[in-house]
Amino acid sequence: MNYIHGYGASEAERLHDQATSVRDLLHADTRYPAGSVVLEVGCGTGEQTVSLAGNSPGARIVAFDRETRSLTRARARVAAAGLTNVEFHRAELFALPFRRASFDHLFVCFVLEHLPRPLDALVLLKDFLRPGGTITVFEGDHGSPFFHPDSETAYRAIWCQVELQRRVGTNAYIGRQLYPLLRGAGYTNVVVTPRNVYVDGSRPALIESFTKGTFTAMVEAVRSEALAQQLIDAETFDQGIADLYRTASPDGVFFYTFFKGTATLA
Question: Rounded to the nearest 5 degrees, what angle is found at the Cα of 107, between the Cα atoms of 161 and 50?
Fold first, then answer.
């Protein structure tokens, strides 16, 4: 996994803002039956784990990540929530220590975007799913934002984020590809739905948690690397970020699309 955002405290805070802002979009219709065993792929700092475990208290959540610092935060977050139906493992996606066909459901959130071989990952994960089991995948698409006031300079700043991911072999536009990826990996009953985040001045909580705390913070964090790789000049990038913050004003509007895919293993 090529995670260009890093694993520091500021990124952990951004992930918290992201999870808070999209909790209903992601988890409102994600519930697992009592007695089922769910594998959460790439759990990171546990932001999604808390919602998964809390919404399905009778299910057992098995969560793994490769990054020790993230797992430490995840364990603390789950403990603070008083949840007891989660177990954590440090593991690599392409070298999983679990038994084949040992899970009823797979949950993959904001992971495929950071993989050079997302199709291979989806194929591999089938081995750990029982026949008739389900997979749920959630991804964003950084080609989907639009906003008011409009700004070509803001789009150029966003493009820096997209291009940096492309240069390390990952895909910031992967949300729009969930259907062909799941079909190509051999899953059946594939259903993909767009999950739109719309923010205007009447939604101050989303202004803070999503427009500012999630999306603009993510783009702003690539400034040093974008300049180092000469993707943009400092003045243009800074103006683009200022224009993104301008969309968080009372008369501004921000729109972004996530995609949720569900499928079954025949």
Answer: 90
Number of CB atoms found within 10 A of residue 11's CB: 18
Domains of the chain: 9-264 (3.40.50.150)
Tell how strand 103-109 and strand 37-41 pair up: parallel
d(CA 185, CA 123) in angstroms, rounded, equals: 5
How do residues 8-52 score in pLDDT, each as one tens digit?
Answer: 556 556 445 555 667 888 888 999 999 999 999 999 999 999 999
d(C-alpha 54, C-alpha 83), whole Å? 7
Distances (CA, A) of 187 to 174, 178, 191, 195: 18, 11, 10, 21
Q: CB under 8 Å to 183, separation ≥6 — which residues?
A: 190
Cis amide bond preceding 116, omega within 30? no
Q: How far apart are CA 95 and CA 245, in angstroms?
A: 41
**pTM of the entire predicted model:** 0.90
Q: What is the C-alpha to C-alpha distance for residues 93 and 112, in angstroms, rounded to an integer? A: 11
